[in-house]
Design brief:
This protein has helices at residues 2-20, 27-34, 38-44, 56-69, 75-91, 94-106, 108-133, 139-163, 171-190, 233-243. By secondary structure, the chain is mainly α. It is elongated, with a radius of gyration of 23 Å.
Length: 244
Amino acid sequence: MSSEVRLRVSAAARDLFASQGYERTTVEAIAERAGVARRTFFRHFRSKDDAIFPDHARIAATAEAHLEALGDVPPFAAVASGVKMVFRSYVDDPVVAVERYRLTRSVPALRDREIASVSRYTRLFGRYLRRRYGDESGAGLRAEAEAAAYVAAHNHVLRAWLRSAGEGDPMPALDAAFGWVAARFASDAQGDDPAGRSSVRPAAPAAPAAGGVPPGGEGEDVVVAVFRSGEPIDDVVERISRSL
């Protein structure tokens, strides 16, 4: 029942903002349109702004729990998976997502609020990467840069999808954007491909140590994964996991 009330109040807020304007719409008017008392409104939302935005606090908590459950999945793949969860919170309800996008574009106060909400996710994924990279040289900068890049990829694909009125399946475009980001960071050591593809190459065999045993221990296997930058990130993770 609680979630039903939230949805009804949110729909009322979007309708009134669109029909009579953000400034002229009051909490009382939203509550009346939704058929609830003013105090009921404030049990669910802190302000009229809150009524039209996704439940960012809940989504962020879910994404954080998801990251922790991934265990030893490579950091870049884990973050891509977490960002994809946030993306799905928009895609799962395209009508609402498009309505909200149109409102935030036309109302500066709502646009600023949305920008602030997005920064929450950048900080969340940055903290996660910082923990995963530990004491590596430059770990702090690397974590912040990678988190910002994945969130930027999310926003780029999401905006394009919203501008198309939520038509079609945006997930392949998101996977391609994530592949591009991964390739850009990999290129620090690998070099850039002019066409924007990953330039990962098979590693040369390790030179044997004295006695003919490869560095790292007797009988240790080395797995080299080569994939295209546009390949879906879930497929990449599955292939790496299967190889290991």
